[in-house]
TrEMBL record:
Co-factor note (free text): Binds 2 iron ions per subunit.
EC top class named in words: oxidoreductase
One BP annotation, GO: fatty acid biosynthetic process
Swiss-Prot/TrEMBL cofactor(s): Fe(2+); Fe cation
Binding annotation for Fe cation 1: 74, 105, 108, 187
Binding site for Fe cation 2: 105, 157, 187, 190
Keywords, in A-Z order: Fatty acid biosynthesis, Fatty acid metabolism, Iron, Lipid biosynthesis, Lipid metabolism, Metal-binding, Oxidoreductase
Subunit details: Homodimer.
Single GO molecular function: metal ion binding
Protein name per Swiss-Prot or TrEMBL: Acyl-ACP desaturase
Originating gene: desA1_3
């Protein structure tokens, strides 16, 4: 880690400590097993029961795709832990946060997998094969600086919260919606933590922070992008309105950027101003792309209704 990165982490440490205290006061413990309908479970063939068939699933194809992507994304926690521990360290308040965040995130995949297996929502053999491939491949965010990592997770945690909530609503299952709403509460608290740290970093070094924000706005990709079948499933999820370009623009990027006062700051230099212009140009292009896909979707609906 460079000297400048070390200095930044040291300067942010009191902010980390204060936000960790705020987080611990706000978080409410929950038990993953409470959200799983165990009475609906039955043995598979290995124990004398029956293996999964497509007719077993109470979920439609959209819900199966979304839940699979959400679960496999959560499955890669070992890699995510490595990423944030490498960027932020394991000492002091930073280390305490890394441990707390990892412990809280660990419940998500446990609860989602138990729900899907017990309810036979998806093929458990295919799911396990995908988990093995995805987790073995791991996740590598590249050579991000601590500032870039803070910017990325601020957006990513919010995106994950929205994806979980919308997947729950689209599932058609009240139990899945209840579970995913609870997982989304964790993700929201994590987003607030990272968002607050990035706000403090902007006050310390606005030009460097804006450059990092620019990098992550322009290059953002969900951490599940490398999983098997991601593109196909992401398209299904987008067409269903669970997570698409409009949501990414309106509900993820803009709220966080406005919270940081990216468009209103008067303390930026030439580098920060250039980064802000690039963010503005990108948002305009993203908004136009989102509008294009919305118009295509509307045209498809009109054609279907006409038929």
């Amino acid at each position: 880690m460079t000297e400048s990165n070390t200095a930044l982490l040291y300067e942010l440490e009191p902010v980390v400590a204060a936000n960790l205290d705020r987080h611990l006061a706000a978080v409410r413990p929950w038990q993953p097993h409470d959200y799983v309908p165990w009475s609906r479970g039955r043995d598979f063939a290995f124990l004398g029961g029956q293996d999964w068939t497509p007719q077993d699933s109470p979920l439609d194809p959209v819900a199966r795709a979304a839940l699979t992507v959400n679960l496999l994304t959560e499955d890669n926690l070992p890699s995510y832990h490595r990423e944030i521990a490498t960027r932020f360290g394991r000492d002091g308040a930073w280390g305490s946060w890394v441990g707390q965040w990892t412990a809280e995130e660990g419940r998500h995949s446990v609860a989602l997998r138990d729900y899907l297996v017990v309810t036979r929502g998806v093929d458990p053999v295919a799911l396990e094969n995908m988990r093995m491939a995805h987790t073995a491949a791991g996740y590598d965010s590249g050579d991000k600086t601590p500032l870039q990592a803070l910017a990325y997770v601020s957006f990513q945690e919010l995106a994950t919260r929205i994806s979980h909530r919308n997947t729950g609503r689209a599932s058609g299952c009240p139990l899945a919606e209840q579970l995913l709403s609870r997982v989304a509460l964790d993700e929201n608290l994590h987003m607030v933590f990272y968002r607050n740290l990035m706000a403090a970093a902007l006050d310390i070094d606005p030009d460097a922070a804006l450059g990092a924000i620019r990098d992550e706005v322009l290059g953002f990709a969900m951490p599940g992008i490398g999983m098997p079948g991601f593109e196909e499933n992401a398209l299904t999820i987008a067409k269903a309105g669970i997570y698409d370009l409009r949501i990414h623009h309106d509900d993820v990027l803009l709220p966080v950027l406005r919270y940081w006062k990216v468009f209103d700051r008067t303390d930026v230099g030439a580098d920060g101003e250039k980064a802000r212009e690039q963010i503005t140009d990108f948002l305009a292009a993203l908004d136009e792309r989102a509008r294009y896909y919305e118009e295509k979707a509307a045209a498809r609906r009109e054609l279907a209704n006409a038929r």
